[in-house]
Amino acid sequence: MRALAILMSLAVAGFAFEARAQPADTGFTLGARLGYALPLGDAAKPGGQSFALKDYVSGQVPIEIEAGYRFTRELSAGLYFGYGFAFASDKVCNQVGPLPTGVSCSASGASVMRYGIQGAYRFVMPGMTPWLGLGIGMEQSKLDVKASGFGMSQTSKFEVSGWEYLNLQGGVEWPLSPGLSVGPFARVSIAKYDTAKIDGTKQSLPSSDQSIHEWLTIGVKGTFDL
Predict the structure, then answer these.
(1) Are 141 and 135 within 8 A, CB to CB?
(2) How deeply is 109 buried, as exposed, middle or buried, from its count of CB atoms within 10 A (0-12, 13-18, 19+)?
(3) 189 closest CA partner among 208, 220, 212
(4) CA torsion sign, 103 to 106 to 107 to 108?
């Protein structure tokens, strides 16, 4: 009987410790993501001619952080920021047009930055947590194009930006420890560039030249509930 009483006491103490270790239903939450994103759609359509986004940036590796607040165990909202190390497409120079004989062209320094607000709903289940989310924000892409020849070189800096009208995302996470969970996610973001900057000179793109593009991102997300 004494041994049984000791075991029951240990079980109760362990349950109490586990309950204290679990984060509250409400509170702050932090997150980080790493993935790979593919470009879809057109960067612009000047004069009705389509310029595919993939012909400028073939892909990117986004690193993202987020901070939010859990209003309930299931519902949360907050801010996100992402910086993507992008890969300049080898087709960029084809978009510039014919170059004089003896002049070469190369592209580098590609990046994609995103920031905005988002919300998520978790379907809390034993052992796993599927979730769905949506957000809205801004996107800013940069690219350097270098022309060389005849012992000279010149680099032009291109930058386009615009609203990310909507991003739809979802995934599933598994707990690694109290408050910490990790799992895969997928996201489609829908955006449109409406502003361009070339070597520091900023201009608005006519609405007739603007076009919807998307990024399809797949990766891993970690969440820490405080």
Answers:
(1) no
(2) middle
(3) 212
(4) negative
Residue type, 15: F
pTM: 0.84
- Are the CB atoms for 77 and 70 separated by under 8 Å? no
Query: What's the token pair of residue 171?
Result: 């995934």
Q: Are 215 and 181 in contact (CB under 8 A)?
A: no
Q: Which domains does the chain have, with CATH numbers?
A: 25-225 (2.40.160.20)
Alpha helices for 80-206 (secondary structure H): 92-96
Q: CA 169, 112, 202 angle in degrees (round to 5)?
A: 125
Tokens of 28: 């702050």
DSSP string, 195-214: EEEETTEEEEPPGGG--EEE
Tell whether the model's pLDDT for residue 206 goes beyond 70: yes
Pairing of strands 180-192, 201-204: unpaired
Tell the residue number behind the tokens 């062209």, with chain if given.
Answer: 105
Q: Is residue 32 a contact partner of residue 222, using CB atoms and an 8 Å limit?
A: yes
- Please answer whether residues 101 and 126 qualify as being in contact, where contact means their C-beta atoms are separated by less than 8 angstroms: no
What pLDDT, in 10s, does the model give residues 194-203?
999 989 899 9
